[in-house]
Amino acid sequence: QLAESGGGWVQPGESLRLSCAASGSIFTFSAMGWARQAPGGQREMVARITKLGRADYADSVLGRFSVYREPRENAVILEMNRLKPEDTAVYYCNAESGSTKTWGQGTQVTVSS
Q: Average model confidence (pLDDT) for the chain?
């Protein structure tokens, strides 16, 4: 099971830190990541980190977002900086194990002035 936290409302240019805690060790998954879905839109990948630590990002967040594993929390973190109104969405954590992808319930992020 995955549980996201850290969403909320911020103004443009501000930062947020999302956390995805797993019920089992995060190092058992082949990869973990974050996706988002804006109102009326499709779910899109935002950031992904493999078991070996390789991180990939969507072009729209490259240079602003950072994904990493935090062993002390047994969680995958998404650091979001210089947030824009178009980053407004429900953010979902996911974990890959073989051909299986598990999803969290999502956390709302709203960026507006």
A: 96
